Amino acid sequence: MRIRIDEEKCQGHNRCYALAPELVDVDDMGTAHVLNGGVVPEELAEKAQLIVDNCPEYAIEIVDG
Ligand code: SF4
User: Measured between alpha carbons, how far is 52 from 21 in angstroms, rounded to an integer?
Assistant: First the structure.
């Protein structure tokens, strides 16, 4: 599984980082970025789905798997 963040949609609420700092980081401008090229380890798959479901801007998507 991989995730992708649309930085144009991201409004920097930090919700994804608060929920899954293993998967995303937020830069000084408040824009979220995926870690590890977006690759989600199997054990973090539920967390990946959680941040997809909790992003108020629908900026995070699962791109495969
Ligand atoms: S929850 Fe969505 S809008 Fe908020 S920082 Fe993460 S990707 Fe950006």
Answer: 14
- What number does the ligand 1 atom closest to the CA of 13 have? 4
CATH architecture type of domain 2-59: 2-Layer Sandwich (3.30)
pTM of the model: 0.94
d(CA 52, CA 3): 9
- Is residue 65 very low, low, confident or very high in pLDDT (cuts 50, 70, 90)? low
Pocket around ligand 1 at a 6 A CB cut-off: 5, 10-16, 26, 32, 55, 57, 59-60
CB-facing half-sphere around the CA of 63: CA atoms within 13 A: 12
Determine which residue's CA is closest to atom 8 belonging to ligand 1: 10
